[in-house]
Amino acid sequence: MDLPLLENDLDRPALLDPHRVVPRGVRLPERAVLCFFPEVVAGLEPVRTIHLSSELGPWPVHVIERDGVAVAVVQPGVGAPLSVIFLEELVALGVRSVVAVGGAGSLVPELTVGHAVVVDSAVRDEGTSFHYAPAGRVIEADPVGMAALSSTLDAADVPYVTARTWTTDAVFRETRTRVDRRVAEGCVVVDMEASALIAVARHRGVRLAHLLFAGDSLAGEEWEHRGWTKAADIRAGLFEVACAAVRDR
Fold first, then answer.
1. Where does residue 187 rank: exposed (0-12), middle (13-18), buried (19+ CB within 10 A)?
2. Most-buried pick from 22, 122, 125, 146 (CB within 10 A)?
């Protein structure tokens, strides 16, 4: 099929570069955490905060310290397009190493609420990644980032699995047939950002690892919320793991 997403112009420069829209004269630390848990970000005590421009209004990026190391933290919205915009702008401001941490839907019953998943690959059922990486069904995660994240989880004695995620744009079109097909090809969770973030990091030459928190469930006949947004202690703990992983790289 002659789809626009399959047009390969990856070697062509974009008309709008992120350096054109970020605040001038601002540099961020080389390390950053993309934290998809808004209550965790709201509870931070930053040493300084900058704001990125957005149609949603000024968007805060906090700089915190962990063991004397500066880390930039942003809640990058929801979905691949918006999170990629913020990742692009962080890179333009000097970020070179990133850990993303957020929630995902469980596709298999053994992943109970709060179980950690280190993303090793993602099925690309979204559109953004195709503007950054050659067309393909699956994209592999950065092995260096994965190793750093896994080592941090091991040191913290946090149980986790290393596995594939299914990244989709359409949260309300996750049908049983699609879930079954994704499980058959090795996906254990579904999210909305991972494959795109992996593609952008590779395109821009920065390190990125992705840590997912098993939240709601699509493993049964009906969707279950499982109260995953109220698991505050687990979400805060995984954020600290992400900070430690990016700090020690």
1. buried
2. 122
